[in-house]
Amino acid sequence: MLRSMFSAISGLRAHQTKMDVTGNNIANVNTVGFKGSQTVFQDTLSQVIRAGGAPAADRGGTNPAQVGLGVKVAAITTNWTQGATQSTGRSTDFMIEGDGFFVTRGTGGEQLFTRAGSFDFDGAGKLVTPDGSILQGWMANADGVVNPNGPIGDLSVPYGQLVNPSASTSGIVNGNLPSDAAIGATAQTGITMYDSQGVAQKVFYNFAKTGANTWDVTVDHSDGTNLLPATQIEFDAAGALIDPAGPAFNLPAFTPPAAYASWQNAVTVNISGLTQYGGANTLGAPEQDGYALGSLQSFQLGADGTIMGVYSNELRQPIGRLALGSFNNPGGLEKAGNSSFRVGVNSGVAQIGTAAEGGRGALMSGALEMSNVDLAEEFTGLIVAQRGFQANSRVITSSDEILQDLVNLKR
What is the DSSP letter of 333? Predict the structure, then answer.
């Protein structure tokens, strides 16, 4: 039989594979996180018709005469370039900007990896993929501390979870006290603090000017009880605070009277942000560290994968952190279906860590990474595969005609 016929058969098979790969790419043009593939061909063994000869003193060398025996699929490679961003507005849609994979726990506890960041909640409050695999990461402890060096586990967002109240132990007062205020002038600002039971305690900071650059500060409860007796503070001629001295710039700590049985801890107020310049009074008390009883209302995802819980008492505290996996050779991963991959023998071990570190990409919430398939390129690939298949079929037809002519020689 003619060698050309068998070569053409291998060409048909190879181009059929290319058509299969191209068809799969086009089918997944709208699949979240899909990475397109390309088919790589290489020739097979060649038959030597005449061996080459080395050059000699009386003649030149000759090249070997070789006839190829067809083509084969050398590889089907994956294109790992970043796909386009599609904004969805869903808080449970995550996108990786850069390298890395979300880590999930599949059926039977198998660890899988995916670029498809479309997650949702199951009945237990866990973040899961559409096929039920559970997103992995690190959950925070009761104080909101996440340990990314520990083992990963299932991530969940426990809506309605209660956070215990915490007594206020510190506060901040900042702003400007007018330098042109008359001696005896007063200024006041207030803030709500909390005792250990989460009961609101309204507190006022009172300032009275006693000299060119000095003010007396008192802290009073809304019921009239004095919490901190008059304490003098002083500014220099340029309007900067010099007493109490830095770097702390704290007023003396005060402990509420015994009448406030559930608020007996010391409270420190920082006034490093105070100034005395000409101009308006901008005195304010922007924050304190206590809070009432609260329940989880919503969450936000940071670029580093931290899931920040937003509670009804205005507390914002981490409730977990997503884990990302990276590989020395992501092309060695094996596709596991459902837009997931599993570790392959040539992928290297999974290097699991936090986002935006160790070569892993940053995270974006409310968006998805779309397929990186280029339709124009795929349609061109369809034409190439079709023409390649057609040309190889013509080789078989021509070889058949030659064989028919050979058979007809006996007639």
Answer: P
Where are the domain boundaries for CATH 2.60.98.20 in the chain?
Answer: 170-288
Cβ neighbour number for residue 199 with a 10 Å cutoff: 15
User: What are the pLDDT digits (tens) for 348-407?
Assistant: 999 999 999 989 999 999 999 999 999 999 999 999 999 999 999 999 888 888 888 888
Listed in order, strand segments (DSSP E) in 236-350 are: 241-243, 268-275, 284-288, 294-301, 306-311, 316-322, 324-326, 334-337, 340-342
Cα–Cα distance for residue pair 84/29, rounded to 1 Å: 11
Residue with tokens 């498809």: 116
Residues 14-70 pLDDT 10s: 999 999 999 999 999 999 999 999 999 999 988 888 899 899 888 899 898 989 899
- Judged by DSSP in three states, 387 sits in helix
Q: Which CATH superfamily is domain 170-288 in?
A: Flagellar hook protein FlgE (2.60.98.20)
